[in-house]
Specification:
Elements lengths: L2 E10 L4 E4 L1 H11 L4 E6 L5 E6 L3 H14 L7 H6 L4 H10 L2 E7 L2 E2 L6 E6 L5 E10 L1
The chain binds zinc ion (ZN).
Length: 138
């Protein structure tokens, strides 16, 4: 067993922007030469998240609409009041979805469903630069 790591860099639009990480993560696995193991994909930052979903326009739009209903951008948020901030909804969404996924690797590829992609979600209320870390044990 060895530990390999890689980084994926993105410019996002914020406001629920969804970016497909799948090819980037599989490139890191290929570069590491790992055939079997586990890949952990993590985004540092309190307003972004990593999850798995079907990456297609309808699903993306439905996820955004659902999060807008569950955690609306406008609200009576203590974080915004105490810190003169505007992105409390982004912190809450990031906490609910979570910052990482761990996925098995078999045959040098991620084990996943045909329509299941790994995605980065940026909930902040402005464009951001994001660095996603990929840690492979295998
Ligand atoms: Zn904030």
């Amino acid at each position: 067993m060895a530990v390999h790591s890689g980084r994926l860099e993105f410019s996002t639009q914020g406001n629920g922007d969804v970016i497909d990480l799948t090819d980037g993560v599989e490139n890191v696995i290929r570069s590491a030469g790992v055939n079997a193991g586990v890949a952990t994909v993590f985004v540092p930052g309190a307003t972004a998240a990593v999850t798995a979903m079907e990456f297609e326009p309808g699903g993306i739009q439905d996820l955004k609409a659902t999060l807008d209903r569950l955690v609306p951008p406008e609200g009576d948020y203590e974080h915004n009041r105490l810190n003169h901030d505007t992105n409390s909804h982004a912190h809450i969404r990031a906490a609910i979805v979570g910052p990482s996924e761990s996925v098995p690797i078999e045959g040098g590829r991620l084990v996943r469903g045909s329509w299941q992609q790994l995605v980065l979600l940026d909930f902040d209320d402005r464009p951001r630069r994001r660095t996603v870390t990929v840690t492979i044990v295998g």
